[in-house]
Amino acid sequence: MSKFSDAEEMYDIPENAVLIVSERGDSFADALMRPITASGRVPVRLGATAAARSFTIIVQDGDAIVTPQIPMVIRMPRLSGMQSADARFLKGEALAALWAIAALTTAAVLGRPGPMGFGGGCSLSASVNELRGGLRTNRMEVFMQGLTWPQSDTGWYFKTPDSVEPLNHEQRAAYPGPQRGRYIRPGEQYESVLVLGPDAWCRGGARIVGHDLAQDSIKLANQLGLDMALILWALSEDLRDPCLARITPWPHREDLDFAWDPFVAAAISHLTR
Question: For 13, how many CA atoms within 13 A lie in the half-sphere containing its CB?
Answer without folding.
Answer: 26
